[in-house]
Model the fold of this input.
Amino acid sequence: MKWPLLALIGLLAPLAGAGASRTFPQVDVSRAPGTQAEVSIVADPGHPTVLLAGSNSDPVSARVLMRVYTSTDGGNTWGSQPGPLPPGGSDGDCTFSDPAVGIDLHSREYYAYLYAPCDAIRELPNLAVATRIGARGAWRMVPVEHRNHFRIDDKPALAVDTSPQSRFVGRVYLIWIRSGSTREPGGVVVSHSQSQGRAWSRPVVVVGALGVDPWFPAMAVGARGQLYVAWMADVGTVEIARSTDGGAHFGRPQVVDRVISLPRRPCDHAPALSIPAQPQRCISPAPSISIDRTRGPRAGRVYAVYGKSGRDGREQDVFVHVYDARLRSQGTFRVNPPDGLRASDQFFPVSAIDQSNGLLWVCYYNSGTGRARTRATFSCTASADGGEHWSAPVRAASRASDTTVPGAPEFEYGDYEGLAVANGVAHPIWTDTRDMRTRGEEIYTTAIPQSALQLP
Done:
């Protein structure tokens, strides 16, 4: 059957949008001057109404260029404070970037971050992890290794083994990118703590930097202690590897997918892509891993979620590659609805599994079309059948953001956002520019109940 052109446009245009128009409570989490971006979030596994989050924060002058956010009422209200200080008590050190958070089965909270001498910030970063008991405890800061002036550590991710079936239950993992050293191997490296963050193991190389620099590592722990790590490679691939012995050894990396180039690419890293909504800093595949640790029909499934351009090479989409627990492929599926006749971009996806029922959630920025392609709304969707079919996206943000307007920071959205899901409620958290003139970039969040979705 042939459709008239106007009817076809009317049929296809809604598919590229953010779906249902229901508005969820909008919470400005950061409420701070300067620029806040690149946020992570986690729910307490034993008390899911307790949430911990962190972000970069760049005020005009400070020793702590990060913030920590805490909610004890399921995200209705939030506290916003500067992040932990550098370890060691030196007044010459500053903390400045990439917080990663976790909570163990005893409600101990973990906050990983970068620190460096204030006069050489971002040049020779080192790693530290702060811990505290409960949401109101005092932070205790510990360096992951002795200070080193020959390497560059960057982009940490943190995961806690909270599975009672795991022989490594309680272990805290930290993964990051290491480069710049001629004295030790670099690439994607992982360390762990079996002492609640008081001491850390010698780093193990997951994948070496063999002429190219891997980037944006992600990590998740399976029900029986399997450790899964994903990253993007500078050769234009997203890759994944597994450890079954607590991170001591990893199997051969597998290619999750190859990144297709968009027409414009004025970016330093090969997989980085310029899109209208983020033309300067550009975007990357930014992989995210989620694992079904339920006892349901898809127990053990591993979901690698990432962004790449669509087959037509016009725009950016979100995909999920599904694996079983042994990393045997179960298929690759597009997460966002197909575009209509006019292209739009879906970028910076983040995923999480609701371990109470196995529902897979994914949230991402969804841009407009045409000239409005610079405006993006953080949106969420979910799959009840293991990633093959997805609900119509719902808008987490009630208003679109635009980081290309005059006065917006060159950092734009940064490189990633956050998502935590527990007991039928999703807590997306993102960088938002709705108050650019009065507050600048802020971190916003909301709570989306599963009942708000139209699951297929």
Q: What stands out?
A: The first strand starts at residue 27 and ends at 28. Confidence is low (pLDDT under 50) at residues 1-19. DSSP finds one helix and 31 strands in the chain.
